């Protein structure tokens, strides 16, 4: 029955009230969505097609959809998107080249708030940590990833070598030497939540959160596939059965 699929929310509230409540709770809701989605993905050993950044991120996106479906009442106004374009106002007015539209790896609409997430593979080497700063953090700092209206800035890293603290200390070395950044914009470890080490940094627009996911030693899915190309799937996001998410 279609009525059985209806989210269990208070329909007596008008739309504006529901949107305002989701916007006010955007920080808590995106945190829950990310942490629970990463935990779900971990159950299948962080499986992915290969070790490209997009292969990590699309798996996380699939798990986000499962977690949203399992928490319909709380997350009915959360809408995650993969590789979504973010055209500027000038682009929309025909004053700037739309071919240069920024494309955050993930963006999540929560009420009126827009949460932008840029993902990078990370290990404590100059090359990858410089990419993390120049092609990740700087896109928020220079305004390319700051939309109109309420927003939150997230960096997401897939730790492929080294421990999170060592990776982010190397990131901090890049920040300290960066011409466009101040030494006080370095990251600081905030907490460890389940499988995620959380860092934060402060900038002219406010706080940026950094979620580090340790995927070391987890092989891509296609390396375990038989020579015939057939392999069993352990994908928890393939069948979005209702799950009890963590509080």
Can you describe this structure?
This protein is α/β, with parallel strands linked by helices and 247 residues long. It has one domain (12-220). The protein has seven helices and seven strands, in the order H-H-H-H-E-H-E-E-H-E-H-E-E-E. It has helices at residues 15-24, 26-42, 53-70, 72-75, 89-92, 126-141, 164-176, and strands at residues 78-82, 106-110, 113-122, 151-159, 188-193, 196-203, 206-214. Strand 3 (113-122), helix 6 and strand 4 form a beta-alpha-beta unit. The protein is globular. The two termini are 29 Å apart. Mean pLDDT is 83; it is low at 1-9 and 224-247.
Q: What strand order characterises the main sheet?
A: 1-2-3-4-7-6-5
Rg result: 19 Å
The proportion of strand residues reads 15-25%
Please tell me the overall pLDDT. Answer: 83
**Approximate helicity band:** 25-40%
* Distance separating the two termini: 29 Å
Shape: globular
Uncertain segments: 1-9, 224-247
- Extended strand count: 7
Count of alpha/pi helices: 7
State the domain count: 1
Structural class of the helices, strands and pairings?
A: alpha/beta
* Main sheet summary: 7 strands, mixed
The helix/strand order is HHHHEHEEHEHEEE
């Amino acid at each position: 029955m279609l009525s059985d699929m209806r989210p269990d929310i208070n329909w007596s509230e008008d739309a504006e009230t529901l949107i305002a409540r989701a916007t006010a709770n955007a920080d808590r809701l995106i945190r829950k969505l990310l942490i629970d989605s990463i935990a779900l993905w971990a159950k299948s050993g962080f499986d992915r097609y290969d070790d490209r950044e997009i292969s990590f991120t699309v798996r996380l996106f699939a798990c986000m959809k499962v977690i949203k479906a399992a928490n319909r009442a709380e997350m009915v106004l959360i809408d995650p998107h993969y590789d979504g374009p973010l055209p500027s106002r000038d682009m929309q007015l025909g004053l700037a080249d739309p071919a240069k539209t920024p494309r955050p790896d993930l963006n999540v609409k929560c009420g009126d708030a827009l949460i932008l997430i840029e993902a990078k593979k990370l290990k404590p080497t100059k090359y990858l940590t410089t990419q993390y700063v120049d092609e990740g953090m700087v896109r928020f700092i220079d305004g390319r990833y700051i939309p109109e209206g309420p927003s939150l800035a997230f960096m997401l890293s897939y730790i492929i070598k080294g421990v999170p603290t060592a990776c982010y200390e190397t990131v901090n070395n890049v920040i300290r030497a960066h011409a466009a950044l101040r030494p006080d914009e370095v990251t600081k470890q905030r907490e460890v939540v389940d499988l995620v080490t959380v860092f934060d940094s402060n900038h002219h627009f406010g706080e940026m959160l950094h979620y580090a996911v340790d995927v070391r030693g987890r092989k891509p899915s296609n390396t375990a596939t038989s020579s015939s190309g057939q392999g069993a799937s352990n994908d928890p996001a393939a069948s979005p059965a209702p799950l009890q998410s963590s509080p």
